[in-house]
Amino acid sequence: MDFSASECLTETVMGSIVSGVETKRPRGRPKTLDRQGTIEIMLESYWRDGVHGLSVNEACRRAKVSKPALYREFGGEDGLMDAVLEHYLALVFPSLVTLMSGAQPFPDALSQLVNLMTEPRATPAGCLLVKLCAAPERLGPLTLARVTAFLEARRELYTAWIGRAQELGQMNTAIPAALAVAYFETQVTTLLTQVANGEAPEMVRAQAALAFAALTCMTETPLLAPKGELS
């Protein structure tokens, strides 16, 4: 993989996510709502409050649209949530690709990633994707398909990034690559959950540094991996 072509990689991955999801297009009478405005309002709502307790009626109230208009435009709650997730991923994923395809050493990129996830910002704290994954019973087939496609694409990105770091001697090669990727995913989810819960950024960063030290600490002793496909 050419790690200098981050824009191409972003387009490829985002394209695979979109092509793997069949999105229903609105039919019938002309639009009576602002689609993009509704998506942005509900992005803020889902991202800040999660999906529990946000019914279709509440979504209509917050977006100031009628229920029939919402159904005509999005096909229902699942279509709305899927459109919001598509918009969210387009906002956040390119920066992740850029970071992980850059030339900076693995430890520096890790530190930059932690800072990005914990620094103050105007958007809600935490990660919308993490919140959706924590409530699978609230996801319809369209949203679930997009979540699944993105998680697969993100894992491929992580795998390439970690594999490159090991090849360059910037990461502990005693850790099987698949185990390192799974561990990294777990730590990122934990970090983002802590941020969403309002924990002190300094403490979250300190804990993340301690957790990620396992990846950069060099040792010649092979680490045990669970039985299965890890290698």
Walk me through the structure:
This protein starts with 5 loop residues before the first helix and ends in a 15-residue tail after the last helix. The N terminus is likely disordered. The chain is elongated, with a radius of gyration of 20 Å. The chain contains ten helices and no strands. It is mainly α. The protein has a single domain, classed as Tetracycline Repressor, domain 2.
Outline:
By secondary structure, the protein is mainly α. The protein has ten helices and no strands.
Can you name the CATH architecture? Answer: Orthogonal Bundle
**Domains (count):** 1
The CATH class is: Mainly Alpha
What is the number of helical segments per DSSP (H or I, 4+ residues)?
10
- The best one-word shape is elongated
Largest sheet: none
| Helical content band | 55-70%
How much of the sequence lies in strands comes to under 5%
CATH topology: Tetracycline Repressor, domain 2
Distance separating the two termini: 21 Å
Low-confidence segments, given as residue ranges, are: 1-10, 220-225
